[in-house]
Amino acid sequence: MVLSLVAPVPEGVHAQLAALGTKLEYLHPALYAGEAARRTATPNHPANTAGTRAYQEHVRLLREAHIRHVGWKRLLHDHLELVCNPQKTLAIGTMVGDAATGNASLHPTNLHKRGAATERAAEHNVQLGLFPTPVGPNEVLLDEDEALKLKTWFLVSYRVKAEGGVRIHSELSLPGQVDRGFVVKWEQRIQLPVIEMDEIELPDEDGPGEIDIPVEFR
């Protein structure tokens, strides 16, 4: 699998990410892994398999990179799968965006309707569970004051089929307002460079032709 940047990293991106405690090197691998996982789905898998596998790898790689390199913690907060900084002030989740994703002159939104948790995160009106679950290794819980201070960013991505491959547009963005399940206002956006991956032929699990099963008639 060939992975590459379509264009140089825009000026200021590294500094903007550093101010949040993250790096491009922690974000892009999650997108790579998600695309690779998506391609393991075949036409014979259930309809949502590709997207589900991509989402799972986005979350996993995002968490693993931040836990391993900068000591962040895994956070499941108000039904959002996140990774949280040690100060408990900033967390990152993932989201699939629309065709405007990564374009500074356009206003992107989420491709699929989000649940109420995203709206609460955008409004800083997060709620705590009444019965907190035990905290495991590399995991953290927030108390009510911490939850109200938490800024929840999203690694928003949108994939486009290009000649001979796939291009993934992305940005790290902070939603400011959600209406009817869709982000209508962003507080801040950091456009990330487009990455490109070569095309992979999906296996044809049905084989080259119809399956011929011999049946003896009685």
Describe, in short, the structure shown:
With 218 residues, the chain is α+β, with helices and mostly antiparallel strands.
Q: Roughly how much helix do the residues carry, as a percent range?
A: 25-40%
Oligomer: single chain
Uncertain regions spanning at least 5 consecutive residues: 125-131, 203-218
H/I helix tally: 5
Distance between the ends: 52 Å
User: How do the SSEs run, as a string of H and E?
Assistant: EHHHEEEHHEEE
Mass-distribution shape: globular
Number of strands: 7
Strand content: 25-35%
Question: If strands are numbered along the chain, what order do they take across the biggest sheet?
Answer: 1-7-6-5-4-3-2
Mean pLDDT: 85
What's the Cα radius of gyration?
A: 20 Å
Query: Main β-sheet: number of strands, strand sense, barrel status?
Result: 7 strands, mixed
Could you characterize the architecture of this molecule?
The protein is α+β, with helices and mostly antiparallel strands and 218 residues long. Helices cover 27% and strands 29% of the residues. It has five helices and seven strands. It has helices at residues 13-20, 24-38, 49-70, 116-122, 144-149; strands spanning 3-5, 73-77, 80-84, 90-96, 151-162, 165-179, 182-198. A seven-stranded mixed sheet has the order 1-7-6-5-4-3-2. A hairpin with a 2-residue loop joins strand 6 and strand 7. The longest helix is centred in the N-terminal third of the chain and has 22 residues, at 49-70. It is globular and about 50 Å long. The model is unreliable at 125-131 and 203-218 (pLDDT under 50).
